[in-house]
Amino acid sequence: MNGTFLQLHKSGGTNKSSNQRPAVLLNSVYQLLNYAINEGLKSFVEPAQILEPGQGEGRQGRCVGINM
User: If I label 68, which of 23, 29, 53, 58 is the partner at 20 to 30 A Cα–Cα?
Assistant: First the structure.
């Protein structure tokens, strides 16, 4: 898999690396496949209640901050 690496400017001076955010642009076929797999897993895992209640990140209506 190939991607294009970018440095996105957040704020402050552009010459400081701490003001840059790394990002990788992947091709759209990978993104579509990733979305399809993720949706398939969610439709199976959520109704079966396989995940622990504390596993909140990436789940609809939940986040890591709730567990802290």
Answer: 23
